[in-house]
Amino acid sequence: MRLLEFEAKEILKKYGIELPGGQVVSAADGFNFTAPVMLKAQVPIGGRGKAGGVIAADSLKQCQDGIKNLLGKKIRGYHVPKLLVEEKLEIDREFFMAITYDTVAKAPIAIFSPQGGVDIEILAASDPGKVRYETFSARHRLPYYRAKEIISETGVTGKRLLALTAILSKLADIFLDYDATVAEINPLALTKEGKLVALDCHLEIDDDALFRHRQLSEIAKDAKRVQPERTASEFERKAMEIDNLDHRGVAGRVIEFDGTMGLIIGGGGASLTAFDAVKAHGG
Fold first, then answer.
1. What stretch of H or E contains 203?
2. pTM score, whole prediction
3. Taking burial as the number of CB atoms within 10 A of a residue's CB, which of 149, 167, 170, 188 is the most buried?
4. What is the sign, positive or negative, of the torsion defined by CA atoms of 226, 187, 143, 106?
């Protein structure tokens, strides 16, 4: 389950990570912010800015027009039902940090770069020395001193090092506490006033762990929360019902294509079992 930006930021706020002032709106006259602001489409995808889903508004009229244009717009296969209106901050510098899972090492991995922004993947490929990776134990979490070492090895020093270390440690706690597969802040902005503020957050929760997080599980059941252009077929809905019979999953995720082709997403032995079942029924 990929959380929408405002949902992910509510979790960041619980852990004391600073955010821009913001408000979720679903109508052009439903906000009480003073321009300049950023208007951000709430859809579960990356690259919203390049797809036209994030725009700046420097006046009340621009804000109202922008909200009208974005609401209901289709962005990479999703309708936009809500926007996050946030104060536009003056940025001095951007950082990147994330926690994800290293499937080779079979351990969580912390990632940090002193350069954040939309092209972080290009930076990682072109100048890998500016991105620091470090695995750690899920059982013992990410110790403060290790988080500090990861950041300091990129050349960050002084009070800024301490402030960034605290945020990276909190992000690792969020990753583990919420059974996440990805917890990313990009960019983490240093404002002209010297504050570190999370401008965007990408947080994905392991679907098989949702039963442990009742509030998120209820959010996931909201049919109006995410509105993809493509709706699930009857076959896919039946597979989903079967898979939900057990919180550990039964059928895996099924995607039906045109014709006689389809895709079933399972892991390890589940995939082998599924193929055996298909063959046993004449497939």
1. strand 201-205
2. 0.84
3. 188
4. positive
What does the chain come to in residues? 283
Distance of CA 252 to the CA centre of its chain: 22
Compute, in degrees rounded to 10, the torsion defined by CA atoms 172, 173, 178, 179: 50
Torsions phi, psi for 68 (to 5 deg) = -60, -40
Task: Write the single-letter amino acid at 247.
Answer: H
Question: Which residue carries 């296969």 as its tokens?
Answer: 77
Going residue by residue through the chain, which has 283 residues, state the pLDDT in tens, using 9 for 90 and above. Answer: 999 999 999 999 999 999 999 999 998 776 777 889 999 999 999 889 889 999 999 998 999 999 999 998 999 889 999 999 999 999 999 999 999 999 999 999 999 999 987 777 777 777 777 899 999 999 999 999 999 999 999 999 999 999 999 999 999 999 999 999 999 999 999 999 999 999 999 999 998 899 999 999 999 888 789 888 777 788 888 887 887 777 666 666 788 888 878 887 766 677 788 788 889 999 8
Amino acid sitting at position 95: F
Tokens of 250: 């039964």
